[in-house]
Design a protein that fits this description.
Layout (H helix, E strand, L loop, with lengths): L1 E6 L2 H13 L4 E4 L1 H6 L8 E5 L4 H10 L8
Antiparallel strand pairs: 1-3, 2-3
Length: about 70
């Protein structure tokens, strides 16, 4: 797996997951448990990761949708 981006915005994360799913790219949200444990204060970003083989295509999908690669 390779990290595609980080975000503290759960709505954006959901949107990005939908974009990738529509393109047939499986994605994994890392650090979701830590974010939930912190009681939703958004202190820890969630990381969106894809398989190494899908990384370049995933970046293109996000770029075509006007999404930046990372927002830490």
């Amino acid at each position: 797996m390779r990290e595609l981006l980080r975000t503290r915005d759960p709505v954006r994360l959901s949107f990005l997951l939908a974009l990738l799913a529509d393109a047939g790219i499986d994605a994994l949200v890392l650090d979701a448990h830590v974010s939930a444990v912190e009681a939703g204060i958004a202190g820890f970003p969630r990381r969106l990761a894809v398989a190494e083989d899908d990384f370049a295509r995933a970046r293109r999908v996000l770029a075509e949708a006007g999404e930046a690669a990372s927002d830490g």
